[in-house]
C-alpha cells in the first residue's frame, strides 16, 4: 500500500463505499474504488446525479460493473503532478448545486462579527474581539439558534446596538445558506485553489460537506475547503458572492463517501477534522475543527436548503467550520493575524473521509474553468453513453 493510500483515503478503506470522478483522455469518468484499483462505472452511472437519484446510492455503486482505470496509488500521485498524462482525480461532483452554510460554529460567528466591526482591517481585529468578549461573554458558545435563550440575547444585543447580519444567522431560526460556486466549477484533491487577486486577508476553511440526493436526503459526505476572503466579507456582507465564488475557490474530495452500514449520520455528526498549512517560507499552521460542537444539526441544514427550493441533480452543502486562525503569521507585522501566501499547501483530513490537499494560487492565474455541463454531455455522447 502506497503512502498516499494510507494518508489520503479513509482509515477503514476496505469498508468504505467511495464515489468520485477521474479524468481520462475521453473525458471525465464516474468511478469507485475496489481494492487497489479505481473502477470506471460511467457506462452504468454516466453522472454523479445518476447515483444520487438511486434509492440506495451505496448499493448501486457497490454493484456496478466497470473497468479498471489503473492503480489507486498511481492516480493519487498523478493528481499532484501537473505534468502527469494519466488519469487524475477530479472534484467528486458534477451537476450538483454547490451551496454552503455559514456561521454554524460559535468561533466562526465571532470572527465574522470581527470582520464586520473592523471593515476588513486585520490590524483592528484584536480590539474588536476584546469588545465582543465584554459585550457577549461566553453565552455565545452555549446558545442554540432559534431558541428562547437566543431570542433573549438577540434583544439584549439590539438594545446595545450590537446586532449584525452575522448574529442574526448565528442565533436566529434561519441558517445562512449561500451559493458557494457553480455546478461543475469545483476542483479536486491535488488541484490548485484560487484566491481573489485583491484579497490581502484570507484563510482556509476545513469543512465536512454533505452530499444530498434530489429529494433532500443526505446520502454521503466529503471534505471541502471553503476558501475564505476575510477582507472582502468584512467590508460588506453584500460582497459575499464576490468573496466566495471565484475561479478554483471551492475544493472537494478526495471522494464522496456514501452512507451505508459502515458510515452513518452518527459518523458525520462526530467527525473530527485536522488542518495543516505548510508555506513555501517554512511556515506551518496546525488547526482543527469538529462537527461535535456545530450549532445546527446537519440534517437541519439540509432541510433548510431544500425546504423552499428544488435541486433535481442533487446538491452539496458545506457545513461551516470551527477553525478561525487569529495568530500572527509574520512576526514582523504584528496584529495582522493569519493570511495565505501563494504556494501554501493546505491539507484537510478526517479519519473516515480521507484527506483533501491543495496548493494556493491566484484565481486569475490558475487554469480557467472551461468544461461545464455542455462539455460533459458532448463527451458522454462521443463515448456512446446515453444519459
Short description:
With 387 residues, this protein is α+β, with helices and mostly antiparallel strands.
Please explain how this structure is put together.
- With 387 residues, the chain is of the alpha+beta class.
- The chain has 13 helices and 17 strands.
- Helix 5 crosses helix 6.
- The longest helix has 13 residues.
- The mean pLDDT is 91.
Task: Present the secondary structure layout.
Elements: H1 3-8, E1 18-22, E2 29-34, E3 37-40, H2 48-52, H3 57-63, E4 67-71, H4 72-78, E5 97-102, H5 106-118, H6 125-136, H7 148-159, H8 165-171, E6 176-181, E7 192-195, E8 202-203, E9 206-212, E10 218-226, E11 228-229, H9 230-235, H10 240-244, E12 250-258, H11 265-269, E13 272-278, E14 284-290, H12 298-306, E15 315-318, E16 345-350, E17 354-362, H13 373-382
Parallel strand pairs: 5-15, 7-17
Antiparallel strand pairs: 1-2, 1-12, 2-3, 3-4, 5-6, 8-11, 9-10, 9-15, 10-12, 13-14, 13-16, 16-17
Helix pairs in contact: 5-6
Poorly predicted residue ranges: none
Per DSSP, what share of the residues sits in E-state strands of 2 or more residues?
25-35%
The pLDDT mean sits at 91
Q: List the total number of helices.
A: 13
User: What is the β-strand count?
Assistant: 17
Based on Cα principal axes, name the global outline.
globular
Please give the largest β-sheet: 10 strands, mixed
Strand order of the largest sheet: 4-3-2-1-12-10-9-15-5-6
Structural Rg:
21 Å
Chain oligomer state: single chain
Please give the alpha-carbon distance between the first and last residues: 36 Å
Provide the succession of SSEs: HEEEHHEHEHHHHEEEEEEHHEHEEHEEEH
**Helical/strand content category:** alpha+beta
Q: Helix proportion of residues, in percent?
A: 25-40%
Amino acid at each position: 500500500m502506497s503512502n498516499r493510500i494510507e494518508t489520503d483515503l479513509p482509515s477503514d478503506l476496505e469498508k468504505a463505499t467511495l464515489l468520485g470522478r477521474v479524468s481520462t483522455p475521453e473525458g471525465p469518468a464516474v468511478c469507485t474504488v475496489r481494492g487497489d484499483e479505481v473502477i470506471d462505472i460511467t457506462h452504468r452511472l454516466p453522472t454523479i446525479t445518476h447515483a444520487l437519484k438511486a434509492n440506495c446510492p451505496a448499493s448501486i455503486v457497490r454493484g456496478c460493473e466497470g473497468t479498471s482505470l489503473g492503480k489507486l496509488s498511481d492516480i493519487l500521485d498523478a493528481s499532484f503532478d501537473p505534468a502527469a498524462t494519466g488519469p487524475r482525480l477530479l472534484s467528486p461532483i458534477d451537476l450538483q448545486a454547490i451551496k454552503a452554510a455559514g456561521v454554524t460554529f460559535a468561533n466562526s460567528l465571532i470572527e465574522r462579527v470581527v470582520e464586520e466591526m473592523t471593515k476588513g482591517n486585520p490590524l483592528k481585529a484584536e480590539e474588536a474581539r476584546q469588545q465582543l468578549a465584554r459585550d457577549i461573554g461566553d453565552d455565545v458558545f452555549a446558545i442554540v439558534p432559534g431558541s428562547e435563550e437566543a431570542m433573549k440575547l438577540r434583544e439584549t444585543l439590539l438594545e446595545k446596538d450590537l446586532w449584525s447580519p452575522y448574529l442574526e444567522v448565528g442565533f436566529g431560526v434561519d441558517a445562512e445558506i449561500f451559493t458557494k460556486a457553480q455546478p461543475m466549477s469545483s476542483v479536486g484533491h491535488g488541484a490548485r485553489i484560487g484566491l481573489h487577486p485583491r484579497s490581502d486577508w484570507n484563510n482556509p476553511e476545513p469543512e465536512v460537506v454533505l452530499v444530498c440526493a434530489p429529494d433532500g436526503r443526505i446520502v454521503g459526505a466529503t471534505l471541502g475547503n471553503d476558501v475564505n476572503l476575510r477582507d472582502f466579507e468584512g467590508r460588506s456582507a453584500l460582497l459575499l458572492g464576490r468573496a466566495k465564488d471565484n475561479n478554483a475557490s471551492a475544493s472537494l474530495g478526495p471522494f464522496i463517501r456514501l452512507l451505508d452500514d459502515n458510515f452513518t449520520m452518527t459518523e458525520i455528526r462526530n467527525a473530527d477534522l485536522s488542518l495543516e498549512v505548510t508555506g513555501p517560507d517554512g511556515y506551518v499552521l496546525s488547526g482543527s475543527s469538529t462537527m461535535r460542537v456545530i450549532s445546527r444539526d446537519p440534517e437541519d441544514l439540509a432541510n433548510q436548503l431544500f425546504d423552499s427550493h428544488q435541486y433535481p441533480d442533487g446538491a452539496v452543502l458545506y457545513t461551516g467550520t470551527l477553525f478561525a486562525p487569529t495568530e500572527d503569521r509574520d512576526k514582523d507585522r504584528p496584529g495582522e493575524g493569519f493570511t495565505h501566501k501563494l504556494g501554501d499547501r493546505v491539507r484537510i483530513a478526517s479519519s473516515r473521509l480521507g484527506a483533501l490537499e491543495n496548493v494556493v494560487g491566484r484565481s486569475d492565474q490558475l487554469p480557467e474553468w472551461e468544461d461545464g455541463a455542455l462539455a460533459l454531455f458532448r463527451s458522454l455522447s462521443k463515448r456512446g453513453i446515453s444519459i
